[in-house]
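User: Some background: our group keeps a shared notebook of sequences we're curious about, and every so often someone picks one and asks for a predicted structure to add to the entry. Today it's my turn. The entry only has the sequence so far, pasted here. Could you supply the structure so I can complete it?
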Amino acid sequence: MARRLTSTTRWLRWLTPGLQIKRWLVLLMVSELVLVLGVAYALKEIYQTAHLPSGFYYITLQFLPYWARAIMFGIFGVGLLLVSYLKLTQSVLGPFLPGNTTTSVVEVIHAFRLRGRGPRVVAIGGGTGLSSLLRGLKVYTSNLSAIVTVADDGGSSGRLRDEYRILPPGDFRQCLIALADAEPLMKQLFDHRFKEGSLDGHAFGNLFIMAMADVTGNFEQALRESGKVLAVKGTIVPSTLQDVTLVASINGSTVEGESKIPKQHAPISHVFLKPDGVQVNPEAAQAILNAELITVGPGSLYTSILPNLLVEGMVEAIKASPALKLYICNLAAQAGETDGFGVDDYLRVIREHVGANLFDFVLVNSNTAHVPTGGQSQVIFRPIDTSRHPEVRFIASDVVNVKIPSHHDPDKLARTIMRKVWQA
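Assistant: Of course. Here's the predicted structure to add to the notebook entry:
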């Protein structure tokens, strides 16, 4: 019974508006009808002028009235037409469908059209938080733009940045993986790290992006071409095209370098970018101004979120955009950055750095039953936070990944955003 219902649902999908299939199917039927009429006139002329064997009387069903013959041939012809059309599309498009062989053509077309009509979403951030968000949102819309921080200076990204003077590719690699169609295989390949020789510690994806930048001539074009190669749903844009360094004021002294700041294990007073006057990437600003929904976070407050917002022109573009603005608060404090922080502390730090009235909504986790796996403290939302920030609307929802409680669940997060923010 379940299989029969699934089959029926698939057939009904062909009736969904906006597939841009039915109009061409009708045109195909009309053209075939015109052709059949021409053949019918020719056959009529043959019947009237030629002497045919007696067996043709039964083959052509002349013993039945015209209306009965019309109905029989019409039903039989439409049935053959539909079966041949479905089998033809499966044969032609089958090799180009994603790896799931159980996916039908109509389901692929329906999902593609649905995502194409999705909202224009700009996601600002970096690291694991941004890639998790993109992995969930790509199910609902293909009109995605990820604006990624370029302050990363640790690990493989930092080495490539120092040696080849390119923007750090690590966070961009994670976004490409998250938005790729063949995600499981691409994740394994792009996250693969070499363990020997001069490539020791380098991720294959970082080297791929670096090589693409060398081939195409610049980092932006490398991201576009990498997106085409991986068939990503959306675009990935650096927040700025300039070489920047994140600097933090800690205990009265300054610490330079995104990777060094959390290692101080001391309260951070303030962060800023070096050099001064770093300008926003024009492509990023244009995406923000054209957006219908802008999300900031989740991600490390001082080393992923603020490096984007501190770029000159970024906050101005966000405020000027007519889009809904959403801040997604972290689930767990980050060691060396936000130890003991609550939701109010995250909003306070953002206000101190870039001003108030930046967001319309703040999304917080309502499921505190799962303790973060890394031993960090949970980021708790308290009712008093509502009165401290009357300019925003707080949305509390279960968005925790129960397997890794310090991370958001991509599906839960995207579903909450689409239902409680976009459709609110």
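Suggested note for the entry: The longest strand covers residues 268-274. Residues 2-109 form one domain.
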